[in-house]
Specification:
By secondary structure, the chain is an alpha+beta fold. The chain has one domain. Helices cover 46% and strands 24% of the residues. The protein contains two helices and three strands, in the order ααβββ. A three-stranded antiparallel beta sheet has the order 1-2-3. A hairpin with a 2-residue loop joins strand 1 and strand 2. Helix 1 packs antiparallel against helix 2. The longest helix has 58 residues.
């Protein structure tokens, strides 16, 4: 009886090592994919913030390129950016100003996105605003507001 327990332990001892190895590989893969997902989300948030800054600068007559560059330089994001900051549309006698930023984001683990290992993932962030009808509203919220 004692001999049988020793042989059972010997047969199962390698299985624990294999299961532990599978769990470790699974956890590492899960961790790496979550890191990549978080980087994609943070970059997308920063791009939409830059698009909003660009459209606000275009409405008040400033350079949208400068405001987009300022927002992007204040963040640490590792990708190549192709900005296209201003375009105008007219709809029902109001001018709609659109800021669109197209960018390529370098991915850390390209095998998650493509079998071919493409290192760049394209993205677009845009923001639209209607220009106020009176120039008095460019610098302040309402006509009697202080210019602080």
């Amino acid at each position: 009886m004692k001999l049988k327990l020793i042989t059972d332990n010997k047969n199962n001892s390698g299985q624990t090592l294999v299961e532990t190895l599978f769990v470790i590989l699974f956890v590492i893969g899960l961790f790496c994919s979550l890191v990549q997902l978080f980087l994609l989300c943070v970059t997308r948030i920063v791009m939409f913030d830059a698009a909003q800054a660009g459209v606000r600068a275009a409405i008040v007559g400033k350079s949208p390129y400068t405001s987009v560059a300022y927002v992007l330089s204040s963040q640490y994001i590792g990708e190549q950016i192709i900005p296209i900051p201003e375009s105008r549309y007219t709809n029902s006698n109001r001018t709609i100003i659109c800021c669109e930023i197209k960018y390529l984001q370098k991915v850390i683990f390209p095998s998650f996105f493509s079998v071919f290992g493409i290192n760049y993932l394209p993205g677009t962030a845009s923001c639209r605003m209607i220009a106020p009808p009176e120039p008095d509203y460019f610098k302040k919220s309402w006509p009697g507001a202080n210019n602080d």
